[in-house]
Amino acid sequence: MTTTSTVSTSGSTTYLTGTISGLDTDSLIEAAVSQKTARADTLDAKVTANTTKISAYQSLQSLLDDVTSAMSSLKSTVYSSLSTSTGNAFDEKAAYLTASDGSDATDMIAVSADSDAVAASYTVTVSQLAKAMKVASDSMASSTALGSSGDFTIGVAGGTSATIAVTSDMTLSDLADAINEQSDTTGVSATLLKVSSGAYKLVLSAADTNVDIELSDISGAAAAIGLVNEDGDFANVLQVAQPAIATIDGVTITSDSNQLTDTIPGLAISLLQVTSTDQAITLDVEADYSDIKTAITDFIDAYNALREFVDTNSTVAADGTVDEDAVLFADSLLRGVTKQLSSIIGGEAGSADDVTNLTALGISLNADNQLELSDETTLDNLLLSDLDSLRGFFESQFTTSDSALKLLKNTSTASLDFTLDVTVADGAISEVTVDGQSGLFTVSGSRIVGVSGTIYEGLSFALVADESVSIDVKLTQGFADLITTQLDAYANASTGLLQGEIERLSEANTTLSDKSTKIRDDAETYRTRLIAKYSAMEQELYAAQILQEQIKSILGSSSDSDE
What we know:
Shape: flat
Strand order of the largest sheet: 3-17-5-13-14
Number of strands: 27
Mean pLDDT: 89
Number of helices: 10
CATH architecture of one domain: 2-Layer Sandwich
CATH class of one domain: Alpha Beta
CATH topology of one domain: Alpha-Beta Plaits
Distance between the termini: 25 Å
Radius of gyration: 43 Å
Largest sheet: 5 strands, antiparallel
Strand content: 25-35%
Protein backbone atom coordinates (compact mmCIF):
# COMPACT_ATOMS: atom_id res chain seq x y z
CA MET A 1 0.00 0.00 0.00
CA THR A 2 1.41 3.34 -1.00
CA THR A 3 1.20 6.27 1.45
CA THR A 4 0.53 9.57 -0.29
CA SER A 5 1.99 12.90 0.83
CA THR A 6 1.31 16.52 0.01
CA VAL A 7 4.15 18.93 -0.49
CA SER A 8 3.23 22.39 0.96
CA THR A 9 5.04 25.73 1.02
CA SER A 10 5.08 28.35 3.79
CA GLY A 11 7.08 31.37 2.77
CA SER A 12 10.36 30.01 1.47
CA THR A 13 10.10 26.75 3.44
CA THR A 14 8.76 23.54 1.88
CA TYR A 15 7.46 20.74 4.03
CA LEU A 16 5.17 17.70 3.94
CA THR A 17 1.68 17.99 5.39
CA GLY A 18 0.76 14.41 4.72
CA THR A 19 3.56 12.49 6.42
CA ILE A 20 5.14 9.25 5.39
CA SER A 21 6.55 8.61 8.83
CA GLY A 22 3.11 8.55 10.46
CA LEU A 23 4.33 11.12 12.98
CA ASP A 24 2.13 14.09 13.97
CA THR A 25 4.81 16.57 13.01
CA ASP A 26 2.57 19.61 13.59
CA SER A 27 1.99 18.60 17.21
CA LEU A 28 5.65 17.80 17.72
CA ILE A 29 6.69 21.16 16.35
CA GLU A 30 4.02 23.06 18.29
CA ALA A 31 5.00 21.34 21.54
CA ALA A 32 8.64 22.19 21.01
CA VAL A 33 7.86 25.83 20.18
CA SER A 34 5.49 26.11 23.16
CA GLN A 35 8.32 25.10 25.46
CA LYS A 36 10.34 27.94 24.02
CA THR A 37 7.48 30.49 24.38
CA ALA A 38 6.37 29.47 27.87
CA ARG A 39 8.59 32.16 29.38
CA ALA A 40 7.08 34.75 27.00
CA ASP A 41 3.59 33.74 28.13
CA THR A 42 4.67 34.40 31.72
CA LEU A 43 6.07 37.79 30.75
CA ASP A 44 2.89 38.69 28.83
CA ALA A 45 0.78 37.76 31.85
CA LYS A 46 2.95 40.06 33.97
CA VAL A 47 2.46 42.88 31.44
CA THR A 48 -1.30 42.34 31.57
CA ALA A 49 -1.25 42.41 35.38
CA ASN A 50 0.88 45.57 35.36
CA THR A 51 -1.44 47.24 32.82
CA THR A 52 -4.44 46.44 34.99
CA LYS A 53 -2.64 47.87 38.00
CA ILE A 54 -1.68 51.01 36.08
CA SER A 55 -5.35 51.50 35.17
CA ALA A 56 -6.31 51.10 38.84
CA TYR A 57 -3.68 53.64 39.90
CA GLN A 58 -4.94 56.08 37.27
CA SER A 59 -8.48 55.63 38.56
CA LEU A 60 -7.23 56.31 42.07
CA GLN A 61 -5.39 59.40 40.81
CA SER A 62 -8.57 60.69 39.20
CA LEU A 63 -10.63 60.09 42.34
CA LEU A 64 -8.06 61.87 44.49
CA ASP A 65 -8.01 64.77 42.03
CA ASP A 66 -11.78 65.07 42.37
CA VAL A 67 -11.43 65.36 46.15
CA THR A 68 -8.67 67.98 45.94
CA SER A 69 -10.50 69.91 43.20
CA ALA A 70 -13.51 70.31 45.47
CA MET A 71 -11.33 71.53 48.33
CA SER A 72 -9.03 73.71 46.22
CA SER A 73 -11.56 76.53 46.11
CA LEU A 74 -11.72 76.58 49.93
CA LYS A 75 -8.02 76.32 50.73
CA SER A 76 -5.66 79.17 51.50
CA THR A 77 -4.17 80.60 48.33
CA VAL A 78 -2.03 83.56 49.36
CA TYR A 79 -0.18 83.93 52.66
CA SER A 80 0.97 87.17 54.23
CA SER A 81 1.63 88.17 57.79
CA LEU A 82 -1.33 89.25 59.84
CA SER A 83 -3.76 88.89 56.98
CA THR A 84 -6.18 86.31 55.77
CA SER A 85 -5.70 84.44 52.53
CA THR A 86 -7.42 85.71 49.40
CA GLY A 87 -8.56 84.42 46.08
CA ASN A 88 -10.78 81.48 47.01
CA ALA A 89 -14.53 80.86 47.22
CA PHE A 90 -14.77 82.73 50.52
CA ASP A 91 -13.66 85.90 48.72
CA GLU A 92 -16.14 85.58 45.87
CA LYS A 93 -19.18 87.81 46.09
CA ALA A 94 -22.74 87.51 44.87
CA ALA A 95 -25.41 90.16 44.44
CA TYR A 96 -28.91 89.56 45.79
CA LEU A 97 -31.82 91.73 44.62
CA THR A 98 -35.13 92.46 46.34
CA ALA A 99 -37.92 94.77 45.17
CA SER A 100 -39.74 96.81 47.80
CA ASP A 101 -43.16 95.93 46.34
CA GLY A 102 -42.47 92.19 46.12
CA SER A 103 -42.13 92.15 42.34
CA ASP A 104 -39.27 90.46 40.51
CA ALA A 105 -36.31 92.81 40.98
CA THR A 106 -34.39 91.15 38.16
CA ASP A 107 -36.87 92.67 35.73
CA MET A 108 -35.51 96.10 36.67
CA ILE A 109 -31.77 95.54 37.07
CA ALA A 110 -29.21 92.76 36.71
CA VAL A 111 -26.02 92.68 38.77
CA SER A 112 -22.82 90.61 38.75
CA ALA A 113 -20.17 90.85 41.45
CA ASP A 114 -16.51 89.89 41.57
CA SER A 115 -14.12 89.38 44.46
CA ASP A 116 -13.27 93.10 44.57
CA ALA A 117 -16.81 93.95 45.63
CA VAL A 118 -17.27 94.95 49.27
CA ALA A 119 -20.05 93.32 51.27
CA ALA A 120 -22.67 96.05 51.59
CA SER A 121 -26.29 96.93 50.95
CA TYR A 122 -27.57 99.57 48.50
CA THR A 123 -30.94 101.02 47.56
CA VAL A 124 -31.35 101.55 43.82
CA THR A 125 -34.01 103.30 41.75
CA VAL A 126 -34.06 103.81 37.97
CA SER A 127 -35.79 106.91 36.63
CA GLN A 128 -34.58 106.85 33.03
CA LEU A 129 -32.94 104.37 30.68
CA ALA A 130 -30.26 105.42 28.21
CA LYS A 131 -31.51 105.47 24.64
CA ALA A 132 -29.94 105.67 21.20
CA MET A 133 -30.98 108.40 18.77
CA LYS A 134 -33.19 107.33 15.84
CA VAL A 135 -34.29 109.37 12.84
CA ALA A 136 -36.37 108.51 9.74
CA SER A 137 -36.86 109.58 6.14
CA ASP A 138 -40.12 110.19 4.33
CA SER A 139 -42.14 107.20 3.14
CA MET A 140 -41.40 105.79 -0.30
CA ALA A 141 -41.14 102.55 -2.20
CA SER A 142 -38.06 100.54 -1.34
CA SER A 143 -37.37 99.39 -4.90
CA THR A 144 -38.07 102.63 -6.81
CA ALA A 145 -35.08 104.70 -7.96
CA LEU A 146 -34.52 107.76 -5.79
CA GLY A 147 -34.17 110.02 -8.86
CA SER A 148 -31.65 112.33 -7.19
CA SER A 149 -27.94 112.24 -6.65
CA GLY A 150 -25.31 113.83 -4.45
CA ASP A 151 -23.31 113.22 -1.30
CA PHE A 152 -23.91 113.55 2.42
CA THR A 153 -21.72 112.80 5.43
CA ILE A 154 -22.96 110.88 8.42
CA GLY A 155 -21.58 109.98 11.86
CA VAL A 156 -22.13 110.60 15.57
CA ALA A 157 -21.04 113.47 17.76
CA GLY A 158 -17.37 113.10 18.63
CA GLY A 159 -16.94 110.20 16.21
CA THR A 160 -15.66 109.62 12.70
CA SER A 161 -17.89 110.56 9.76
CA ALA A 162 -18.12 108.92 6.33
CA THR A 163 -19.38 110.24 3.02
CA ILE A 164 -22.32 108.44 1.42
CA ALA A 165 -22.49 108.83 -2.36
CA VAL A 166 -26.07 108.81 -3.74
CA THR A 167 -26.79 108.17 -7.41
CA SER A 168 -30.12 108.72 -9.13
CA ASP A 169 -30.60 105.04 -9.94
CA MET A 170 -30.16 103.94 -6.31
CA THR A 171 -33.22 102.68 -4.42
CA LEU A 172 -33.98 103.23 -0.75
CA SER A 173 -32.78 99.68 -0.12
CA ASP A 174 -29.51 100.43 -1.96
CA LEU A 175 -29.02 103.53 0.19
CA ALA A 176 -29.52 101.52 3.37
CA ASP A 177 -26.85 99.07 2.18
CA ALA A 178 -24.44 101.91 1.43
CA ILE A 179 -24.92 103.38 4.90
CA ASN A 180 -24.45 99.97 6.59
CA GLU A 181 -21.20 99.40 4.72
CA GLN A 182 -19.81 102.37 6.67
CA SER A 183 -21.52 101.61 10.01
CA ASP A 184 -18.32 100.29 11.67
CA THR A 185 -16.76 103.70 10.98
CA THR A 186 -19.73 105.96 11.60
CA GLY A 187 -21.52 104.19 14.46
CA VAL A 188 -24.78 104.60 12.53
CA SER A 189 -26.82 101.78 10.98
CA ALA A 190 -29.78 101.86 8.60
CA THR A 191 -32.93 99.73 8.40
CA LEU A 192 -36.06 99.83 6.29
CA LEU A 193 -39.28 100.16 8.25
CA LYS A 194 -42.44 99.12 6.40
CA VAL A 195 -45.16 101.65 7.26
CA SER A 196 -47.85 100.56 4.78
CA SER A 197 -48.29 98.43 1.68
CA GLY A 198 -45.38 99.28 -0.61
CA ALA A 199 -44.22 102.21 1.58
CA TYR A 200 -41.04 102.26 3.65
CA LYS A 201 -39.05 104.67 5.77
CA LEU A 202 -35.28 104.67 6.04
CA VAL A 203 -34.47 104.59 9.77
CA LEU A 204 -31.03 105.60 11.02
CA SER A 205 -29.99 104.39 14.50
CA ALA A 206 -26.93 105.26 16.55
CA ALA A 207 -25.02 102.23 17.81
CA ASP A 208 -24.39 103.84 21.20
CA THR A 209 -26.84 105.40 23.59
CA ASN A 210 -26.82 109.08 24.57
CA VAL A 211 -24.97 110.21 21.47
CA ASP A 212 -26.43 112.37 18.66
CA ILE A 213 -26.41 111.37 15.01
CA GLU A 214 -24.85 114.11 12.83
CA LEU A 215 -25.59 114.48 9.10
CA SER A 216 -24.23 117.09 6.71
CA ASP A 217 -26.28 117.25 3.53
CA ILE A 218 -23.68 118.48 1.04
CA SER A 219 -25.79 118.38 -2.11
CA GLY A 220 -29.37 117.98 -0.91
CA ALA A 221 -29.50 114.18 -1.39
CA ALA A 222 -30.62 113.63 2.20
CA ALA A 223 -33.26 116.36 1.95
CA ALA A 224 -34.60 114.75 -1.23
CA ILE A 225 -35.74 111.70 0.73
CA GLY A 226 -36.93 113.67 3.74
CA LEU A 227 -34.10 112.82 6.14
CA VAL A 228 -33.44 116.50 6.83
CA ASN A 229 -35.47 119.67 6.30
CA GLU A 230 -34.43 122.83 4.52
CA ASP A 231 -32.52 123.98 7.58
CA GLY A 232 -30.47 120.78 7.61
CA ASP A 233 -32.12 119.50 10.76
CA PHE A 234 -33.53 115.99 10.98
CA ALA A 235 -37.08 116.04 9.76
CA ASN A 236 -38.35 112.98 11.63
CA VAL A 237 -36.73 112.32 15.00
CA LEU A 238 -38.15 109.05 16.28
CA GLN A 239 -36.11 108.90 19.47
CA VAL A 240 -33.78 111.45 21.01
CA ALA A 241 -30.51 110.36 22.59
CA GLN A 242 -30.66 110.32 26.36
CA PRO A 243 -28.56 109.11 29.29
CA ALA A 244 -29.51 106.63 31.97
CA ILE A 245 -30.45 108.17 35.30
CA ALA A 246 -30.51 106.16 38.51
CA THR A 247 -30.06 106.76 42.20
CA ILE A 248 -27.93 104.65 44.52
CA ASP A 249 -28.58 105.37 48.19
CA GLY A 250 -30.12 108.69 47.14
CA VAL A 251 -27.13 109.77 45.01
CA THR A 252 -28.06 110.53 41.39
CA ILE A 253 -26.03 108.60 38.83
CA THR A 254 -25.97 109.66 35.17
CA SER A 255 -24.52 107.30 32.58
CA ASP A 256 -24.18 107.33 28.81
CA SER A 257 -25.18 103.67 28.76
CA ASN A 258 -27.38 101.32 30.75
CA GLN A 259 -24.29 99.41 31.89
CA LEU A 260 -22.87 100.79 35.15
CA THR A 261 -19.53 99.00 35.22
CA ASP A 262 -17.48 101.38 37.33
CA THR A 263 -20.04 103.04 39.56
CA ILE A 264 -19.40 100.69 42.48
CA PRO A 265 -16.05 98.82 42.52
CA GLY A 266 -16.51 95.11 41.86
CA LEU A 267 -20.10 95.43 40.63
CA ALA A 268 -21.44 95.47 37.07
CA ILE A 269 -25.01 96.80 37.07
CA SER A 270 -27.30 96.57 34.05
CA LEU A 271 -30.34 98.86 34.03
CA LEU A 272 -33.24 97.03 32.41
CA GLN A 273 -36.40 98.91 33.29
CA VAL A 274 -37.53 102.11 35.00
CA THR A 275 -38.76 101.59 38.54
CA SER A 276 -42.16 102.95 39.52
CA THR A 277 -42.58 105.95 41.79
CA ASP A 278 -42.96 103.95 45.02
CA GLN A 279 -40.64 101.14 44.01
CA ALA A 280 -37.02 100.62 45.10
CA ILE A 281 -34.55 97.78 44.64
CA THR A 282 -32.40 96.59 47.53
CA LEU A 283 -29.01 95.35 46.30
CA ASP A 284 -27.18 93.22 48.86
CA VAL A 285 -23.57 92.23 48.16
CA GLU A 286 -22.55 89.24 50.23
CA ALA A 287 -20.38 86.15 50.04
CA ASP A 288 -21.30 83.72 47.28
CA TYR A 289 -22.82 81.15 49.61
CA SER A 290 -23.81 78.82 46.78
CA ASP A 291 -20.21 78.43 45.57
CA ILE A 292 -19.00 77.59 49.07
CA LYS A 293 -21.79 75.10 49.69
CA THR A 294 -21.29 73.51 46.27
CA ALA A 295 -17.59 73.01 47.03
CA ILE A 296 -18.50 71.27 50.30
CA THR A 297 -21.13 69.00 48.75
CA ASP A 298 -18.81 68.25 45.82
CA PHE A 299 -16.21 67.18 48.36
CA ILE A 300 -18.71 64.83 50.01
CA ASP A 301 -19.55 63.25 46.66
CA ALA A 302 -15.90 62.96 45.64
CA TYR A 303 -14.91 61.45 48.98
CA ASN A 304 -17.70 58.88 48.79
CA ALA A 305 -16.66 57.86 45.27
CA LEU A 306 -13.11 57.41 46.56
CA ARG A 307 -14.43 55.44 49.54
CA GLU A 308 -16.27 53.06 47.20
CA PHE A 309 -13.04 52.48 45.28
CA VAL A 310 -11.17 51.77 48.51
CA ASP A 311 -13.85 49.32 49.66
CA THR A 312 -13.82 47.52 46.31
CA ASN A 313 -10.08 47.03 46.58
CA SER A 314 -10.09 46.03 50.25
CA THR A 315 -12.96 43.59 50.66
CA VAL A 316 -12.36 39.94 51.52
CA ALA A 317 -15.23 37.52 50.90
CA ALA A 318 -16.65 35.31 53.66
CA ASP A 319 -14.68 32.36 52.28
CA GLY A 320 -11.44 34.33 52.55
CA THR A 321 -11.05 34.95 48.82
CA VAL A 322 -10.33 38.30 47.22
CA ASP A 323 -12.52 39.46 44.34
CA GLU A 324 -10.80 39.87 40.98
CA ASP A 325 -11.87 43.53 40.95
CA ALA A 326 -9.69 44.16 44.00
CA VAL A 327 -6.67 44.99 41.85
CA LEU A 328 -5.02 47.04 44.61
CA PHE A 329 -5.75 44.65 47.45
CA ALA A 330 -3.10 45.08 50.19
CA ASP A 331 -1.41 47.76 48.05
CA SER A 332 0.84 49.98 50.17
CA LEU A 333 -0.01 53.19 48.30
CA LEU A 334 -3.74 52.62 48.67
CA ARG A 335 -3.29 51.83 52.37
CA GLY A 336 -1.19 54.96 52.84
CA VAL A 337 -3.60 57.37 51.22
CA THR A 338 -6.56 55.76 53.00
CA LYS A 339 -4.87 56.06 56.38
CA GLN A 340 -3.96 59.71 55.91
CA LEU A 341 -7.34 60.67 54.53
CA SER A 342 -9.18 58.89 57.35
CA SER A 343 -7.02 60.69 59.88
CA ILE A 344 -7.97 64.07 58.44
CA ILE A 345 -11.66 63.21 58.09
CA GLY A 346 -11.90 62.08 61.68
CA GLY A 347 -9.56 64.70 63.14
CA GLU A 348 -9.68 68.39 63.94
CA ALA A 349 -8.48 71.31 61.86
CA GLY A 350 -8.65 75.05 61.52
CA SER A 351 -8.52 77.93 63.95
CA ALA A 352 -12.20 78.47 64.73
CA ASP A 353 -13.23 77.74 68.31
CA ASP A 354 -16.64 76.29 67.52
CA VAL A 355 -15.97 74.70 64.12
CA THR A 356 -13.11 72.23 64.41
CA ASN A 357 -14.38 69.14 62.58
CA LEU A 358 -16.85 68.01 59.93
CA THR A 359 -19.47 67.18 62.55
CA ALA A 360 -19.71 70.89 63.38
CA LEU A 361 -20.72 71.44 59.75
CA GLY A 362 -23.55 68.93 59.97
CA ILE A 363 -21.53 66.28 58.13
CA SER A 364 -21.28 62.76 59.53
CA LEU A 365 -20.01 59.28 58.62
CA ASN A 366 -22.69 56.65 58.07
CA ALA A 367 -22.46 52.91 58.67
CA ASP A 368 -20.77 52.42 55.28
CA ASN A 369 -18.07 54.98 56.13
CA GLN A 370 -19.63 57.37 53.63
CA LEU A 371 -19.93 61.08 54.34
CA GLU A 372 -23.39 62.58 54.35
CA LEU A 373 -24.81 66.04 55.00
CA SER A 374 -27.02 64.81 57.81
CA ASP A 375 -27.85 68.28 59.16
CA GLU A 376 -28.05 70.74 56.29
CA THR A 377 -29.57 73.39 58.54
CA THR A 378 -26.35 73.53 60.57
CA LEU A 379 -24.29 74.17 57.45
CA ASP A 380 -26.73 76.79 56.15
CA ASN A 381 -26.66 78.61 59.50
CA LEU A 382 -22.85 78.73 59.39
CA LEU A 383 -22.92 80.08 55.85
CA LEU A 384 -25.42 82.80 56.67
CA SER A 385 -24.46 83.79 60.21
CA ASP A 386 -20.95 82.56 61.02
CA LEU A 387 -19.01 82.51 57.76
CA ASP A 388 -15.76 83.47 59.52
CA SER A 389 -15.81 80.28 61.59
CA LEU A 390 -16.50 78.21 58.51
CA ARG A 391 -13.62 79.92 56.75
CA GLY A 392 -11.40 79.41 59.76
CA PHE A 393 -12.06 75.66 59.59
CA PHE A 394 -11.14 75.25 55.93
CA GLU A 395 -8.30 77.76 55.60
CA SER A 396 -4.88 77.68 57.24
CA GLN A 397 -4.15 80.69 59.40
CA PHE A 398 -0.71 82.30 59.71
CA THR A 399 0.11 84.94 62.28
CA THR A 400 3.42 86.41 63.37
CA SER A 401 4.71 89.03 65.79
CA ASP A 402 6.68 90.73 63.00
CA SER A 403 4.88 91.72 59.79
CA ALA A 404 8.20 91.66 57.93
CA LEU A 405 8.11 87.86 57.99
CA LYS A 406 6.19 86.51 55.01
CA LEU A 407 5.07 82.93 54.52
CA LEU A 408 5.99 81.97 50.97
CA LYS A 409 5.13 78.28 50.98
CA ASN A 410 3.14 75.91 53.14
CA THR A 411 3.08 72.25 52.12
CA SER A 412 3.36 71.13 55.71
CA THR A 413 0.56 69.26 57.45
CA ALA A 414 1.56 70.28 60.96
CA SER A 415 0.05 73.08 63.03
CA LEU A 416 2.95 74.85 64.69
CA ASP A 417 3.57 77.49 67.34
CA PHE A 418 7.24 78.47 67.67
CA THR A 419 9.73 81.32 67.86
CA LEU A 420 12.27 82.01 65.13
CA ASP A 421 15.50 83.47 66.49
CA VAL A 422 17.12 85.24 63.55
CA THR A 423 20.77 86.27 63.74
CA VAL A 424 21.81 89.13 61.42
CA ALA A 425 25.48 89.86 60.79
CA ASP A 426 26.80 92.53 58.40
CA GLY A 427 23.29 93.22 57.19
CA ALA A 428 22.55 89.62 56.19
CA ILE A 429 20.81 86.71 57.92
CA SER A 430 23.53 84.35 59.07
CA GLU A 431 21.61 81.84 61.20
CA VAL A 432 18.09 80.88 62.21
CA THR A 433 17.33 78.77 65.28
CA VAL A 434 14.17 77.63 67.02
CA ASP A 435 14.28 77.73 70.80
CA GLY A 436 18.08 77.63 70.56
CA GLN A 437 18.14 74.59 68.27
CA SER A 438 19.95 74.93 64.95
CA GLY A 439 19.69 72.77 61.84
CA LEU A 440 15.92 73.20 61.50
CA PHE A 441 16.03 75.93 58.86
CA THR A 442 18.44 76.82 56.08
CA VAL A 443 19.12 80.39 54.99
CA SER A 444 19.50 81.58 51.42
CA GLY A 445 19.62 85.36 51.23
CA SER A 446 16.29 86.54 52.61
CA ARG A 447 14.67 83.08 52.36
CA ILE A 448 14.29 80.84 55.39
CA VAL A 449 13.45 77.26 54.46
CA GLY A 450 12.43 74.34 56.69
CA VAL A 451 14.88 71.43 56.54
CA SER A 452 13.66 68.18 55.02
CA GLY A 453 12.92 65.53 57.62
CA THR A 454 12.03 68.04 60.34
CA ILE A 455 8.59 69.19 61.40
CA TYR A 456 9.31 72.43 59.53
CA GLU A 457 9.69 70.71 56.16
CA GLY A 458 7.41 72.32 53.58
CA LEU A 459 7.63 75.81 55.12
CA SER A 460 9.38 78.70 53.44
CA PHE A 461 9.59 82.28 54.74
CA ALA A 462 10.94 85.56 53.44
CA LEU A 463 12.42 88.11 55.81
CA VAL A 464 14.28 91.36 55.31
CA ALA A 465 15.94 92.29 58.59
CA ASP A 466 18.62 94.84 59.51
CA GLU A 467 19.26 93.44 62.96
CA SER A 468 18.84 90.20 64.90
CA VAL A 469 15.29 89.53 65.93
CA SER A 470 13.06 86.94 67.56
CA ILE A 471 9.73 86.38 65.84
CA ASP A 472 6.77 84.45 67.23
CA VAL A 473 5.09 82.33 64.56
CA LYS A 474 1.80 80.48 64.68
CA LEU A 475 0.51 78.33 61.82
CA THR A 476 -2.78 76.48 62.10
CA GLN A 477 -3.52 74.11 59.26
CA GLY A 478 -7.00 74.29 57.77
CA PHE A 479 -9.03 71.28 56.67
CA ALA A 480 -8.91 72.14 52.95
CA ASP A 481 -5.15 72.73 53.06
CA LEU A 482 -4.57 69.45 54.86
CA ILE A 483 -6.64 67.51 52.32
CA THR A 484 -5.02 69.08 49.25
CA THR A 485 -1.47 68.85 50.61
CA GLN A 486 -1.76 65.24 51.74
CA LEU A 487 -3.48 64.02 48.58
CA ASP A 488 -1.23 65.97 46.24
CA ALA A 489 1.70 63.95 47.53
CA TYR A 490 -0.05 60.91 46.05
CA ALA A 491 -2.04 62.28 43.11
CA ASN A 492 0.22 64.94 41.59
CA ALA A 493 0.55 64.12 37.89
CA SER A 494 4.25 65.02 37.89
CA THR A 495 5.67 64.29 41.32
CA GLY A 496 3.04 62.16 43.08
CA LEU A 497 3.75 58.70 44.46
CA LEU A 498 1.08 57.17 42.23
CA GLN A 499 2.59 58.73 39.13
CA GLY A 500 5.98 57.39 40.13
CA GLU A 501 4.58 53.88 40.40
CA ILE A 502 2.69 54.26 37.11
CA GLU A 503 5.89 55.26 35.35
CA ARG A 504 7.83 52.42 36.98
CA LEU A 505 5.26 49.86 35.87
CA SER A 506 5.12 51.36 32.38
CA GLU A 507 8.89 51.13 32.05
CA ALA A 508 8.79 47.56 33.37
CA ASN A 509 6.12 46.70 30.78
CA THR A 510 8.31 48.05 28.01
CA THR A 511 11.20 45.88 29.16
CA LEU A 512 8.99 42.80 29.62
CA SER A 513 7.34 43.28 26.24
CA ASP A 514 10.73 43.60 24.53
CA LYS A 515 11.89 40.37 26.19
CA SER A 516 8.65 38.59 25.23
CA THR A 517 8.95 39.73 21.64
CA LYS A 518 12.57 38.49 21.50
CA ILE A 519 11.57 35.10 22.91
CA ARG A 520 8.72 34.74 20.41
CA ASP A 521 10.92 35.82 17.51
CA ASP A 522 13.52 33.24 18.55
CA ALA A 523 10.79 30.61 18.90
CA GLU A 524 9.57 31.29 15.38
CA THR A 525 13.11 30.92 14.10
CA TYR A 526 13.25 27.63 15.95
CA ARG A 527 9.88 26.63 14.41
CA THR A 528 11.32 27.30 10.96
CA ARG A 529 14.32 25.07 11.69
CA LEU A 530 12.07 22.26 12.97
CA ILE A 531 9.83 22.50 9.92
CA ALA A 532 12.85 22.28 7.70
CA LYS A 533 14.21 19.33 9.70
CA TYR A 534 10.97 17.33 9.65
CA SER A 535 10.36 18.26 6.04
CA ALA A 536 13.77 16.92 5.06
CA MET A 537 13.07 13.74 7.00
CA GLU A 538 9.71 13.27 5.34
CA GLN A 539 11.24 13.96 1.94
CA GLU A 540 13.81 11.24 2.53
CA LEU A 541 11.13 8.81 3.72
CA TYR A 542 9.03 9.73 0.72
CA ALA A 543 11.95 9.04 -1.60
CA ALA A 544 12.57 5.74 0.20
CA GLN A 545 8.93 4.80 -0.18
CA ILE A 546 9.07 5.52 -3.91
CA LEU A 547 12.24 3.46 -4.18
CA GLN A 548 10.58 0.62 -2.27
CA GLU A 549 7.60 0.72 -4.60
CA GLN A 550 9.91 0.66 -7.60
CA ILE A 551 11.81 -2.33 -6.23
CA LYS A 552 8.59 -4.19 -5.55
CA SER A 553 7.45 -3.42 -9.06
CA ILE A 554 10.73 -4.65 -10.55
CA LEU A 555 10.71 -7.81 -8.41
CA GLY A 556 7.11 -8.43 -9.36
CA SER A 557 7.91 -8.16 -13.05
CA SER A 558 10.87 -10.56 -12.74
CA SER A 559 8.71 -13.16 -11.00
CA ASP A 560 6.11 -12.97 -13.80
CA SER A 561 8.88 -13.48 -16.43
CA ASP A 562 10.20 -16.65 -14.69
CA GLU A 563 6.86 -18.28 -15.01
